[in-house]
Amino acid sequence: MTPQPPQSPRFACATDENDNLRGYLLAAAATTPHAPALVERTAEAGLRTWSYAELERLVDDYVGALDELGLDVGDRVVVQSNHCSAAVAVLLACATLGLPFIPVSPDMPGERLALIVDSARPALFLQYGEGMRDGLPATVGTGRFGDAGLIVERAPRTGPRVRAGVTPTDPVYIIFTSGTTGRPKGVVMTHRGVLAFLRGVRRLGFVAPGDRVATTSPLQFDFSLVDTGMALGCGATIVPVPREELGWPRRFLEFLAEAEVSQVHGVPSIWRPVLRTAAADLARMRSLRRIVFSGEDFPLPELRRLSELLPQVQVVNGYGATESMAASLTAVPNPVPGTLDRLSIGRAHPGAEMTLIDDAGLPVTEPGVTGQIYLRSPALFSGYWNDPAATAAALVPDPFAPASGQIVFRTGDLAYRGPEGELYFCGRADSQVQVRGNRVELGEIERRLQQHEGVASAVVTLDEQAGAEPVLSAFLVRKDGAAGESATAAGLRSFCAESLPSYMLPQSIHFVDEIPLTGNGKADRRALLAGIPR
Predict the structure, then answer these.
(1) How confident is the prediction for the chain on average, in pLDDT?
(2) Are the beta carbons of 424 and 413 closer than 8 angstroms?
(3) What number of other Cβ atoms are within 10 A of residue 354's Cβ?
């Protein structure tokens, strides 16, 4: 017999569609309960389709198990899993009860996970499937979830429940990204913020009931939550692409065809090997009608080739940061004009606005003049976890009306206006870069390299070559007398892998006698890149 969720005021408040992520994403369970909510590949039965009613029952099963643990609204739960039905259900169960979830990848290095656990101090660590992570503090409860339900192995430490219910301003999740201090930085999003974003982009009409939306991003990457929210919030179907398929272009396309996918979301780099080795197969994908990309630039030669192979497909350029889920979704011209040299990020999604501010704090209105993007939106994050200084630097008084108390997001992104008022992204005002859709602070990699006993100084930069995928390049000065295998490029890469995720590992390492400096005394990254033999 299926356990019923607790019928308490706390639960009733939580499931109100207007208040809670769970209510919004499962609204179709009441109107079209038999419609497909999620399609996934299983080892036993090939493709498995979950209806909205089935997904809601799974969520409620997890709600019942979590509610018995005595956790209170605001207690954090780390969820380690790839994207699958069970993971979506656990995240929505956490949202139901006001337990902010922290998604992490199964292949996250233990040292980095330890930093996140130390910072967030979760009450519970949940892992999909068998086994359990080593080294978790005794203060953290542990459990596993999957087809057999949710099994608690070590009960969390709880106190009296002091909250009566979940409110729209409560945190729904925390995404940890790369941080300038060398420690992961937690971006806190509320139910109200997430729902404001999802309702805004829904008005753009890029997803409709009947669509099957393939998501290619890892669960810990905020864009996977965007994909899931856009699909389920519209009564459509989310289709997680198995991680093992992404590295094999033909298998990737075969999965899309088998799952009858109509829309694919992901970083541009997922298409590079497809275009290189499976272009003919891609051209036969007549069911595709939309591709949404984000996280990095789509090289225009590759984008033009994609449009040639799939002329019926609309390509959408997603721009934004974890701090607001995204800021804009802009349709790319089809076909891509041969004279086009930069894609527009358009305007903010409905309900939000992007403005440009110069170094003096004044608005930039003239076309072609660069300024920093400030975002006004009800979908802004509430702050960085336990970091009031970083929060105050990003969430700032409205420069147009500082006395109003209005807070806007200073993004750190630079852009200029086109002749019709559209925006064109043109870089960062700091050392942050995007690698395969993941936000990376170069300083975090540099600090890790400088912790090595054989490294005197380190500079990391993004090497962007025309027609090739950008790579992280590290330039190192060895300490006097440093030698041995650990001081080699391979040894240093292994040293970094102990604490950094794979997308933050330098792909090329160069040893130099000294780091050249610019006129103002900063590392001259352009000179370092110019010295690489091509």
Answers:
(1) 90
(2) no
(3) 24
Q: Which residues, other chains included, contact 300 with Cβ-Cβ below 8 Å and sequence gap of 6+?
A: 336, 340, 341, 343
Instruction: Work out the angle at residue 470's Cα, subtended by the Cα atoms of residues 465 and 474, and round it to the nearest 5 degrees.
Output: 100
| Residues 94, 40 within the same domain | yes
Q: Which residue, 92, 125, 156, sits at the end of a domain?
A: 156
Helix (H, G, I), strand (E, B) or coil at 349: coil
Which H helix or E strand runs over 87?
Answer: helix 85-97
Please, are residues 178 and 185 in contact by the beta-carbon 8 Å criterion? yes
**Can you give the pLDDT at residue 516?**
86
Query: What CATH number should be reported for the domain holding residue 120?
Result: 3.40.50.980
- Whether 98 contacts 163, CB under 8 Å: yes
Mean pLDDT of 489-493: 91
pLDDT at 19: 82
Whether 239 shows a pLDDT value over 50: the answer reads: yes
**Is residue 284 in a domain?**
no
For helices 85-97 and 52-67, the axis angle rounded to 10 degrees is 50
The one-character DSSP state at 70 is: T
Model confidence band, residue 44 (pLDDT cutoffs 50, 70, 90): confident
Q: What's at 383, amino acid-wise? A: G
**Which of 156, 186, 221 is at the close of a domain?**
156
**Angle CA(18)–CA(22)–CA(27) in degrees, nearest 5?**
70
Question: Using one digit for the tens of pLDDT, what is the confidence trace for 362-391?
Answer: 999 999 998 999 999 999 999 999 999 999
**DSSP one-letter string for 434-499:** EETTEEEEHHHHHHHHHTSTTEEEEEEEEE--TTS--EEEEEEEEPTT--SGGGSHHHHHHHHHTT
Domain match, 86 and 124 both:
yes
Phi first, then psi, for residue 272 (nearest 5°) are -60, -50
Residue type, 114: A
Side-chain-facing half-sphere of 309: CA atoms under 13 Å:
20
Residue 534 pLDDT exceeds 80 = no
Q: Which domain, by its residues, includes 406?
A: 353-428
526 in the same domain as 439: yes
